[in-house]
Amino acid sequence: MLQAQLLVSQSLSYEWLNFGICNLLIVDNRESAWRLLEGNHEGQTQVDNPQNEDLAVWDHPIDVHYATKSLYGWPKMFFEVWHQDAFARHELYGYGFCNLPTSPGTHDVQCVTWRPTGTFQDQIRQIFVGGGMEIKDSSVIYTSNDRCNLHTVAMGTIHLQLGIILRHFDKYGIEY
């Protein structure tokens, strides 16, 4: 069982994180052994407009309950952070993912976010036209080694408070 709270996003470039919003997805390997029993594995925070801070405060609750037959495919959290720029254009601010802790208890997790930069031409186009680079298939971010070929820039950190409850793992010889 995962009980979590998506707390805040701390921006590296304050002027860009206007009207910040975060989409989240808990990714598991459902083809293997993971089964969602309760809760929603995806969600979206409310919009926050940090006035005089470099933090977007979301305080978004997450409550899911999984059953598994194997440790293979342990769940991860995937994030897309969006913002509205000074010209009211909605743009991708960054991607991020983190592995969920494998031990029970309360955990403070920091998830680093980044965005693809593209070529120099793409960066100039983003400044004047808006938009920016996006990844076509977001599963590449949390499943593939192909992301090492991406040119990216760091965008900030998402702070999470996670409560992990593991039940009956000891029956199957799994120690933590």
Q: If helices are DSSP runs of H or I spanning 4 or more residues, what is the number of helices?
A: 2
The general outline is globular
Main beta-sheet strand count, sense and barrel state: 5 strands, antiparallel
Q: What is the strand arrangement across the widest sheet?
A: 3-5-1-9-8
Rounded radius of gyration (Å): 18 Å
Encode the helix/strand succession as letters: EEEEEEEEHHE
| N-C termini distance | 15 Å
Structural class: mainly beta
* Quaternary organisation: single chain
On the 0 to 100 scale, the average pLDDT is 79
Low-confidence stretches: none
β-strand number: 9
Q: Please indicate the percent range of residues in DSSP E strands (runs of 2 or more).
A: over 45%
Helix content bin: under 10%
How would you explain this protein's 3D organization?
By secondary structure, the protein is mainly β. It is 8% helix and 46% strand. It has 2 helices and 9 strands. The strands form 2 sheets. It has a 5-stranded antiparallel β-sheet with strand order 3-5-1-9-8, with no helix packed on it. Strands 4-2-6-7 form a 4-stranded antiparallel β-sheet, with no helix packed on it. The longest helix has 9 residues, at 120-128. The mean pLDDT is 79.
Compact summary:
8% of the residues lie in helices and 46% in strands.
Task: Record keyword descriptors for this entry.
176 residues, mainly beta, 4-stranded antiparallel beta sheet, globular
